[in-house]
Amino acid sequence: HAQQGYTLWMDYAGSNPQSRKNLKFLAKSIYMEAGSDILKSAQNEIEIGLSGLLNEKLNFSDTMENDNSLVVSKVSSLKGSWSQSMDVSSEKLGNEGFYIRSRDGGILVTANTDIGLLYGVFRLLQFIQAGHHLEDFSLLDAPSVDLRMLNHWDNLDRTIERGYAGFSLWNWQKLPEYIDQRYIDYARANASIGINGTVLTNVNANALVLTPMYLEKVAALADVFRKYGIKVYLTARFSAPMEIGGLETADPLNTEVRNWWAQKTNEIYKWIPDFGGFLVKANSEGQPGPQNYGRTHVDGANMLAEAVQPHGGVVIWRAFVYSEDDETDRAKQAYAEFVPYDGQFMENVLVQVKNGPIDFQSREPFHPLFGAMSKTPLMMEFQITQEYLGFSSHLVFLPKLFEEVLQSDTYVKGKGSTVAKVIDGSQHNKRISGMAGVSNIGTDLNWTGHPFAQANWFGFGRLAWNPETKANDIAEDWIKLTYTNNKELIALLKPMMINSREAVVNYMNPLGLHHLFDTGHHYGPGPWVDNLGRPDWNPTYYHKADENGIGFDRTKSGSNALEQYSDEVSYTFGNLKTCPETYLLWFHHLPWDYTLNNGNSLWDGLALRYQEGVDQVSEMIETWEKARNFINNDQYHEVKMLLDIQLKEAKWWRDASLLYFQTFSGMELPEGVPKPT
Ligand code: GCU
């Protein structure tokens, strides 16, 4: 099992032999439209996929015949009885969608475009892999989000900011000549879940990537990814005109600076004709930006937008800003800085907003910007890499978290104004929409470190394609594609994955607590840390525990961050009777003896939550023992060792947090919570 995990959810030869028997006929005579590189990728995937799945030699036919067993062809080239099989309006397929249907003795995969066909081929293979019956089968699917992107926080020296699965895949030293097979497999994996963009470099950007030496290498990667419908984007360091351009300023209203960016952009498009555009972190955590020159986010974003516009590129401007001068509440700052600019950004600017107002915690309420900028396309930024969720050591199924955010109701246009609708653009009829995930991918043999972290990459892709997708369905599909479609195994693993998200919340940040991590690394507990350079970097800033109680008052009597939400949301969260206990200490500062819904005191309830998190990890271990019969030994041992770490560390979080908070509450631990030894 040297290659354990490398094939991700595309282990065509490995899983579900029984489900393929009655599909062997598919190999008989395959017609595959020829032409573009993307179609070649589709053909290549059929070759690897179908021959692996069916264990049969594939016969391709050069012409489309009525008795083909499989036809993969654009709607516009369908012939004979195959064009009659196209029984839906092709408009519904759009530019990226596909239609798959079975008919007597054959299967049709069709689309308006080459990329639609590639997506259709991947989906067909996944259906076969998962063991679905393909008789009387039809499926029409098209993405509801335009930009479905990974954000790599990869540095040019191949370290990865917040990366826990080895080094960066991008081997700058050997590029452009040496094309690592991993680039191709990375592109295949992404295309198989519909991802169509990738930002290669860290948001804490290095201007060097914009120099010819690197652009040549970026172009080589773009050449590989293009064949899978994936565009390349780069992060733009705002001060690049000074650092690599020799200018004395990076002021976005300075003509020389504007010309420099225009020329730089032209140069990039010479290398990469379909370059996607720039992702920018400006005036945040020490990164340079327009505010250094007394200018605004709009000035900065529009300058770059003007440069990429003639080439059809976009600028993705991040809203992750919080300044050290603001003493009230970090959670309020992005909204305060961005809402006034709604309507002033150029058409090709998207503002990228993290899912919650602080920073990728295991649970946060949705960001108040969602729904609050009706004229600006807002892109979702999720974090797939588990910076605050146990790195690649802890098993946490993130689609559950993503789903919770996407299904949150902003109420900006009444009930049903979910974040999902803001993101897919339907809420305010946006011209362009997008979702980004901060990648968890690295050079580890299995790509993501923890085998189950593959499910987070997979799940992100599914949700970016369709933000209404259910976490439950994602878990089930991933298990089937990665392990087997055995019902007993699914019955074991699916609840384990689904519950894993609540487990990490319980043992790290129960009842709405947040940002209690030790300095810098964000791995273990450090709720006591109070000596960092900025108040809002200290955990004490977030939990505000003292003899009287614990929690961040964000109601009117406190920071009033609630006023940034619509009235309905602000009422629900602001009122103790209606605020879900999952967000209790996010919005309220409460006495230790405050009575929770179940009658427990806040102190007891908090302690019991930590314990519940520990118990949930113990249950995961028991489940994994039962799963042992269905998987191979290596698969079993790898995850078992990781779960043992997770259990040890869940206890560490519980004990460290409770011992510290106890110095304020002065209360005994309730029954069922062991005294730390
Ligand atoms: C977090 C993370 C940083 C990252 C930042 C960002 O604060 O810890 O490493 O640069 O988010 O999203 O810009």
From TrEMBL:
Membership in a protein family: Belongs to the glycosyl hydrolase 67 family.
GO cellular component, one term: extracellular region
MF terms in GO: alpha-glucuronidase activity; xylan alpha-1,2-glucuronosidase activity
Annotated EC: 3.2.1.131
Keyword tags: Carbohydrate metabolism, Glycosidase, Hydrolase, Polysaccharide degradation, Signal, Xylan degradation
Start and end residues of each Glycosyl hydrolase family 67 C-terminal domain: 448-672
Protein name in UniProt: Xylan alpha-1,2-glucuronidase
Active site per UniProt: E285, D359, E387
Domain Glycosyl hydrolase family 67 catalytic: 128-447
